[in-house]
Amino acid sequence: MPRAPSSTCQEEGRRHPAAIGSLALASRSRFEVANPGKLSMRRIRLCGLDEIPDPGARGFRVTCSSGALDIFVVRVDGHVRAYVNRCPHRGTPLDWEPDQFLDPETTEIVCATHGARFRPSDGACLVGPCRGRGLDPVPVETESDVLYYREGES
Ligand code: FES
Question: How far apart are CA 117 and CA 102, in angstroms?
Fold first, then answer.
């Protein structure tokens, strides 16, 4: 059974990874984007930008029209990127415990299963069994220090 994401709108307490899979997590609020040129696009509020340390990362489950998607947002040197929380090697979640996606130096994303390392800026695998492949990016944006997932662009 796939593991649930590490964070939702309501902060989850630290749990043993084996217990995470049984969590029923709330979906995020959503609304239509006020953009007449892109009526089919919606965005989903993830959190305040200040809720993700720099450097740091945080996992989310977004519920969009195609179903639930586990993603994580990484913030390094003021840059924010988001990826699907799935290693290209075996498809397992990357975090070794909730919101723990980065190595101890907080410079690279590390897969908890076999230790592949990924560059935060583009998700490229630098070392490990999936070298030459990369993480699947997901579209996010910030507005007024709030972070949003943009549905319909991934
Ligand atoms: S599953 Fe990530 S490196 Fe093997």
Answer: 9
Tokens of 123: 């998700």
Which of 84, 85, 92 should be mutated for ligand 1, with most atoms under 8 A from CB? 92
Residue in this structure with the two tokens 């696009």, named with its chain if needed? 41
Q: Tokens for 133?
A: 């492949």
> Measured between alpha carbons, how far is 85 from 108 in angstroms, rounded to an integer?
15
Question: What residues make up the domain containing 100?
Answer: 44-146
pTM beyond 0.90: the answer is no
Whichever domain contains 115, its CATH number is 2.102.10.10
Per-residue model confidence as pLDDT tens digits over 73-89: 999 999 999 999 999 99
Measured in whole angstroms, the distance separating CA 22 from the mean position of its chain's CA atoms is 19
What is the C-alpha to C-alpha distance for residues 65 and 147, in angstroms, rounded to an integer? 19
Strand-pair partners of 83: 72, 137
